[in-house]
C-alpha cells in the first residue's frame, strides 16, 4: 500500500523537477541578475551556506508556533466546549469570534509589539489569534450533532448529558477538529513570520526581512523554502496524528498531500 | 403484567396551522410478557410518537404506560429500543457498538463482554467483531443494531420498523432469523411495521392503528403456533387474515 502511494506521487515529483530545471535553464539563458531572480542551484547554495544562521532563526519560529498553536488548541477546546454545552453563552460569544477574525491582523500586530515589546509574547498572541478561529469553528461544527434519531437512541438508554458528549459528540467532532487543526497549523507559521517581520531580533521573519533589505534575493528564497518546509512538516504531522486518532476513516479524500 | 398502555394521548403544537395537533388519541393496548405483538397502521399515523413515548424519550399528555405494573411515563432505560436506522456509531467497532447500552448503564464490563461474544457468534457476526460499521453490509448492520438492543439487557423490546430499509431478500432472511432468535429468548416484543406479511409471520397479535390521531382500530390474534415456518404465509387462514388487515388499512 505504501509502495503504491509512492508510485502515485512519482509523476508530480518528476514534474516538480522539470519545473526546477526550466527555472535553472531560463534564468541562465536570459541572464537574469541574481538580485532579481536566483537560480534553484544558487538558492540551494544559500541554504547550505547560511544553514547555521537559518537553523537558529528556525528554532525561534518553531518555538513560537508550537507554543502559540498548542495554546490556541487549549483555548479552542475550552471555548467550543462551553459554547456547545450552553447555547446562551454561545449566543453571547459568537459575534466576538467573528469580529476577532475580521479585524486585520496586520493592524493589531504593531499594537501588540508596542505593548509587549520585541520578545516572544506578542508573536505567540498573534499566532493564538490566527489559529483560534479555524480550530474553534471546526470544533463547534463537529460537536453540534444534528441527528435527532441518534440523540433519541441514547436518551432511550438513559444516557446523561456528559455521556452524550463523550460517547457521541466528541468522536463525531474529531474529523472536523483535525481539518481545523490542519488549517491552523499553516496559519500559525504565517502568523509567526508576520509577527517577527514587524519587530524581532530572531526568527525566520527577521531573516527574511534582513535578506530582502540587503538585496540578498537568494537568501529570501532560502527563507521562503524554509517557511514552506516548516508549514509542510506541521501539516504532515497533524495528518499523521489524524490517521492514528481516526482509525474508522479509511481514506480522507481531501488529504492529497499525504 | 407485560407492557400496558392506558388511555394515552399526545398533542403537538403545529406552527404552520397555529394550533395543537392531536397525534395520539386515548390509545390503549396490552402486550403480555413473552409475547410478540406487531403494531401496524397507515403511514403518518403517529407510530414514531408512540415509540418515543414508550421508550421514555417523551412524556404523554395524559394516560399511563405500565411496565410490569410500574409506571414508566417519561422514564427511559427500561425498554430496549431499536430505531428504524441502525445508528451504529461509525467510530466504534461492531463490538464497541453492541456494548453501547452496557456502557451507558455502567454494567459490569467483564460479563457484558462475555455475553457479547456469545451473541455475536449466534448472530453470525463473530468474524466481524473488530470491523467498523462502514465495512458491514446492510443486513449485518441491522443485526448489529438488534444485538445492541438485546445486550441492553431489558426483557421488553421496542422495534421500530427495523427492516424497513433492507431489500426484499435480505429482509426475508432477517425475518426468519429474528423469529428463531425470539423463539429462544422470548422477549416481550412490540414490533412496529408497515409490512403485513412480516406482521403475520412474526407476531402473536397484530394491533391495527387508525389514521392520525392514532387509536386502536382492531386487535387480531394470529392463530399459528410458534416457532413458525415461513410457509404459513401461504395457508388460506393467513390469506384471510391478510385480506382482513388490508381492508382495515386501506379504506
UniProtKB/TrEMBL annotation, chain A:
Show where the ABC transmembrane type-1 domain sits.
58-242
What domain of life? Answer: Bacteria
What is one Pfam family matched by this protein?
Answer: BPD_transp_1
Record InterPro entries: MetI-like, MetI-like_sf
**Keyword Cytoplasm assigned:** no
User: Cellular component terms, GO, for this chain's entry?
Assistant: plasma membrane
Task: Cite the Gene3D superfamilies for this sequence.
Answer: MetI-like (1.10.3720.10)
Name-wise, this protein is ABC-type nitrate/sulfonate/bicarbonate transport system, permease component
Q: Which organism is it from?
A: Desulfosporosinus hippei DSM 8344
UniProtKB/TrEMBL annotation, chain B:
Report keywords, A-Z: ATP-binding, Nucleotide-binding, Transport
What transmembrane ranges does the database entry give? none
- Any Pfam family: ABC_tran
Instruction: Tell me one GO molecular function of this protein.
Output: ATP binding
Say if the entry is tagged with keyword Disulfide bond.
no
Q: Ranges for the ABC transporter domain?
A: 3-236
The parts of the chain that form a coiled coil are: none
- Taxonomically, the superkingdom here is Bacteria
Q: ATP-binding among the record's keywords?
A: yes
Under InterPro entries, the record lists: AAA+_ATPase (IPR003593), ABC_transporter-like_ATP-bd (IPR003439), ABC_transporter_ATP-bind (IPR050166), P-loop_NTPase (IPR027417)
What Gene3D superfamilies does the entry give?
P-loop containing nucleotide triphosphate hydrolases
Question: Could you identify this protein by its name?
Answer: ABC-type nitrate/sulfonate/bicarbonate transport system, ATPase component
Source organism of the structure: Desulfosporosinus hippei DSM 8344
